[in-house]
Structures are given as structure tokens and as C-alpha cells.
Amino acid sequence: MDLTRYRSLEHAILLDVRQPDEYEKGHVPGARSVPLQKLRDFSLEVTDRKTPLFVYCLSGGRSARAVRALRGVGYTDV
Asked: Residues near 31 by Cβ (< 8 Å), separated by ≥ 6?
């Protein structure tokens, strides 16, 4: 994840796809907690599919799945 690029983009969204208890134990400032199983709700909320999205988790597995899912519903900058 490139935090410098994330911070340079005005409308970018940073998604933490870990479980809520993991998020509560510590997260990147400004990150939104969107557990992997809640991505559908997020995609209904953020309808501009060109919104830059940055995704992270603990080790990369969940974020990789989230990236595939978000691209699968039309997000172009994940």
C-alpha cells in the first residue's frame, strides 16, 4: 500500500478489510473499517467506480480478495 500516493489524492478512500476487533486494536489514521464480508455494502455506498481505493489487511490475503471483489463490481482504481 502506498500511503504517500493515498494522501496525495483528494478523494481517495483507505479501506481496512480486517475484522472490527483487529481495526480497534490499531489502524492507519483515516482508514475506514470495511470487513471483507461488508464490501457489498461499501460498493452500494460509494457509487463512483473511479474513486481511488487503497486496501489493506494484516498479511495481504484479505486485501487481495477485496481488490478482486471491488474490481469485479467495476471499481477501476483499486
From this structure: 14, 15, 16, 23, 56
In this prediction, what percent of the chain has a pLDDT beyond 70? 99
* Measured CA distances, 32 to 50, 65, 76 (Å): 18, 17, 19
Concatenate the DSSP letters of all residues of 16-75 into one string.
Answer: E-S-HHHHHH---TT-EE--GGGHHHHHHH---TTS-EEEE-SSSHHHHHHHHHHHHTT-
DSSP 8-class letter at 14? E
Three-state DSSP at 4 gives: helix
Q: How much is the pTM?
A: 0.92
**So which residues are the catalytic ones?**
57
